[in-house]
Structure formats: structure tokens, C-alpha cells
Amino acid sequence: MSVRIKDIAERVNRSITTVSRALNGYDDVSPETKQLILKTAKEMGYSPNTFAQRLQKQQSDTIGLILPTFSPRFSDPYFSELLAGIGNKAADLGFDLLVSTRSPGPEENETYEKLIDGRRVDGFIVVRTRKQDQRINYLLSRGFPFVAFGRTDDCDRFSYVDEDGYFGMQLIAEYIAGLKHEKIACILPPQDLAFSEKRLAGLQAGLAEFDLTLREEYIREGDLTQKSGYQLGGELLDLPDRPTAIVACNDLMAFGVMSAAQDRGLVVGEDVSITGFDDIPMSEYSYPPLTTVHQPVYQIGGMVCEMLIRQICEEIQDLQQVLLKPELIIRQSCRSYT
Amino acid sequence: MSVRIKDIAERVNRSITTVSRALNGYDDVSPETKQLILKTAKEMGYSPNTFAQRLQKQQSDTIGLILPTFSPRFSDPYFSELLAGIGNKAADLGFDLLVSTRSPGPEENETYEKLIDGRRVDGFIVVRTRKQDQRINYLLSRGFPFVAFGRTDDCDRFSYVDEDGYFGMQLIAEYIAGLKHEKIACILPPQDLAFSEKRLAGLQAGLAEFDLTLREEYIREGDLTQKSGYQLGGELLDLPDRPTAIVACNDLMAFGVMSAAQDRGLVVGEDVSITGFDDIPMSEYSYPPLTTVHQPVYQIGGMVCEMLIRQICEEIQDLQQVLLKPELIIRQSCRSYT
DNA sequence: AGTATAAACCAAAACGTTTTGGATGTCAAC
DNA sequence: GTTGACATCCAAAACGTTTTGGTTTATACT
Q: I need a surface site. Which of A202, B207, B272, B330 has the fewest CB within 10 A?
């Protein structure tokens, strides 16, 4: 069916070894032979059998990405962008990307185990880290290469890239407080996610600079979807003493809050101020355009991927820990409280 | 390092053949031996080397998915949901999913070529089909298995799943026309995409039932992002004789149009009616909730994947062509024109 | 002439499976 | 006691590479 090295070898009357070495650019092949082999290989339409190479080389040139899908309808623009960042970088560096989608839990861990045991990937990218992250503990315990996007409660033993959520929320807090808001509410990500408490802490720290605190009743925990933003935002706005500003911990929830506000006849950016986090492309064209914190997700995907591949190829062995300073993007979803 | 069949064979004093056959459940192994082998394999923590198996079996148990990323910031909730549908089904059926992200063009085609030549995948899922689809022509010319999500101008030679965009837009047209709108505008997908003209034709057919036609000046072509919906929606609304209803060909663009309308002080669902297409989860929680056409993207992902795997395993050889009847989801972004 | 060096090549082993085509032994039937 | 059927097992080949550890030949140096 398809052309093997053996076929080329027979055609040019050389050994398999010589053909292989010529193809791989070794210099113990005479220039003429090399030329001939390359030409013949091309003519015959040779291309190597990947699995044979991988079996022999004992590496898969593949990186694994297991996306945690929280709901059955996993609809998140954030992840498609991250995926593109990872995928393009992997392709540039000659690696395959093996993607799996699993909801958090035992099945997810089994998937990691299976991919490692079958030697199908050389390393993993772990996304959306949890405070106590079983995936990371497992990978650490097996000594398997990975790079995380996000930190954990105990993250000095592995490489990661993360945005500085504390700092980002501090910027938000300072901005909102600077706008003279005092009744400030917040919709947090699920508690078990690592960035949840960092963002809360940053928000509180920023407010503290203005001698403000976050009232208990103004804190809600969402699941990062627009739906939950809508529901929790609605609850907050229906409070007898309703907040004048609502800080959502991602853009999607912020959009939900905006809908809830508009539902109640409130004008966003007038009657109530709302902020997001992530700066997904949509947030520039919402109504009103959303004030948020920019996170260069595409680039982060590329960085994480490159760090992992470097680590696999053993160009790097020390830990790399990158913390990105996010930037506040001021648009029109907030105004000063009078 | 890791346990091989050979190691088990030595331990139980049987041949490699017998161990392999026991592990694979053949019945020419005595029950006691089989028991022993299975137990020993477990004890020793054996798991097969995937690449050795694939090399021998001459199949990759992997399906390829090359996502066409239009913009550098590829941010589309639709695709993450599709990916989850495909990924979960693939995992259920014991297949790996190899994902690549490439913008349409020569690089994209090379990626298909490379994956086929390296025998890295057993088949492809082709998404977001174009009228004249080079990817499909290429796969057809090489006789390589694939299933498409979407049709093309010439689609009687391959298997696909598609929603009936013609029918869906007809539903929209009938609904809008039934609401007594006459000045109806439309924002189409990029012309080269296969569903573009189908949706336009369906819209026109639906309107024709009410003796309405689409004015030339009311037709725009977007790129399916919220941004383009915002810009083109703005253009339409700034027309001297502005439309009273705007039909966007996907939800994301509809959101953009909604923002443009609100920007101009118009109340969506009052002063102007707007519809979408896809029914992504977000559309239920926009303001106002979006009237749209439902497309079961997650399920479609699963179907396409299953069809492909069946085809690869040769359980099916005849073409399978599935056309899904979509459903109109009426929410609050439209009202009757008075 | 003899010796070292370098250039060009190659046979065979290795990677870890599955499959082919038997071999061996036991038992029942004639 | 031969025959056939059956159960159990296995050596060796195959999948398509890369690598190891050479050999051979020509050239340069003493």
C-alpha cells in the first residue's frame, strides 16, 4: 500500500540504515547518495509511519489537554480561545494535541491515568486549577511532566502560568471605589477553583484601601455561566438595600447580571455599575460595553504550551512560574455613584 | 522501566503469545492460565503500549478535528460545545481525538495531508463546510474516511449531518412576517460558507409566502462574530428608512445587533425586533432573551463522531445523510409591528 | 611499506505488540 | 491401536522505524 523505507532502499540499492540516516540528515552518507535518496523518497511519495517512529523513539510528540466540562452544554468562548492558543503553538513546535473532555471527578482522573499508562502523551496542560487539585497531585505523584494554567493552594512544586487575579481585582476595586460606590456586591467563581479566593482577596484588599468592606449579604457564588450571573445578579438586585455596583468574576456572569438589571428596568452604567473579568472579545460589543480586566488567553495558551514542550525536551528542568499583571479595561458599564 | 508482555510471560512461565491472547480474551487459553495471567498483569501494573498496538494493528483509533479559526482571537461558544459533543462520544467509543486549529487556507490543507500521510488518524470530522470545500474535495480524492457537519454545493458523495437551515430560516421568516413586519433586514454569514445561501433562500421563501421580499439594501454579510453584528447592525439601523426587524444568521451576531440598537436608544423587542440562530445557552439570558432557532450542537457533535467511527470500523459503508429539523424558540426579542 | 584517519556504508537488534501456522497432549469413538 | 476432534500452548514473523556497533575502502602521514 504505502511506501516504506525498505522500498526506497531497494530502489536505490542501499541499506535501510543508509536511507534512514539520509532522511534524518546524518552526515555519514555521501552527498550524492543523500541527494538520490531524498529525490527517490519524494518521487515515491514517502512519508514515515508516525507510530513506528514513536514506538522506536519512545516518545509520543503529543501533549494532552483534558478540558473540564462543567455542564453538559459546555459553551464557553474563553476555552475556544485558549484551545486555539495551545493548538497553534503545539503545531508550530511539531507536537500533536490530544484533547479530551471530561467533567471533574473520578472519570477525569482515570483519563489522565489512561493516557499516561498507554504512553500516549508526553505531558499535560492542566487548566482551571482547583485549590486542592487532584489532577495535579496525581501528576506530581507520578512525576509526569505538565504545566498548569493557574495556581493551587500549594504550587511551589510545579510550573505554571497565571494571571494575577489578586492584582486584577484590586484594580477593579480601586476603580469602583474611586467612583464612590459603597454598596458593592460580588459574584464569585465556584469556591473550589483556585482563582476564586485570590479574586475575592484582591477585591477586599482594594476596597480596604478606601476603608470599605464587602458585606456578607452581597457575596454570591456562581458557576461562571451567563445563566448563573443572571440568577444571582437578580437576587442581589432584589435585595431590599440593593448594591449600586456588582463585580462579577468573569465576563459571562457579568453579561448575565446586565440582563438581570435590564430586566428590572435599570440602566447599566447609570443605575447600576457592573464589571467583568477576562475581556473576551464579546465584551467590547455588549450593551453597554463592559468594563473588565484583560487576560491574554490566546497568548497564555501559547506560553503554557511552549513551557511544557521545553520541559519535555529537557531544555528546561527548573520550575517556571509566570504571573501576568492584568490590565483594567474601562468601558461604559460603570459610572460614579451620586 | 514499564512492564511489557514479555515480563508477564516470564513470570507466569508461558509464551508471549499466550499472554497476549489471554489479555485479549481469546478462548484458546485455559481458564486457569487466563486467570493467572490477568491477575499477574494487574499485580505488575501492566498496560499495553499504545503505539506498539497501533503499529501492529495498522490503525490509529484516533479521529482528527481541524478547527477553522477565522480570527486570531478564536472565541466561539458554539465550537466549545461541539467539541464537547465530539470528544465525549469519541471517548465513549474508545477513540482519541486529535485537535488542530488552523485558519482556512493552504496551511489548513497541509495539516490534513500531514495527518493522513503520517497515518496518525483514521478519519476526520469536517466542520463549518464551505460551498466549494477544498478539504472535502481533498479527502474525497484520497478516499479517506470523514463525516461532515454541514453540506456543500455538491454533497451526494459523502456522509454528513446538517441542520435544515432553509427550514429554520423559513420558520423565522414566517414568525417575523406573521408579526406584520415588512421592512426586514438580514445579516448573512460569509458567502463562502455552505449554510449562507441556504439560510438566505429559506428566509426569502418564508417571506414570499407573505408576498414579501428582502430589499437589496437590507442585506449584509457578517463574519459571525458579535463585533460584526454590532457594526453591520449599526449600519442597518442608521439607514434613512431603517428596518423594523433584523434577522441575524447566528446568535453572536444577533447580540451585536442588539447592542447596536440599544446604543441608538432603541428598545429591542419594542422598537426593533431581532432574531438569531443556534440557540447557544447565552441566548436565554441576554436582554431581552433572544428569539432564535435551536440547533442541538452537542448532540450533533456526538452523531457526527459516531457516524465516522462506524464508517471507520466498516459497520457502515453506504452514505449516511442526516438533516435535522430545527425548532423555533420564541423569546422576547421580537414584537408585532404596529 | 606500514599505520592511522576518515568517509561511506550496512547487518542486526531493538521498540512492544498481534497474528499466523503450527505442535503437543488428551480423550472418545471406532 | 488407530483416528479424529479438541484444548492448550508456542516460535517466529510481522508492523516500520532508529540505533548500535561494526566493516570496507580510500587517503594521508610517517
A: B330
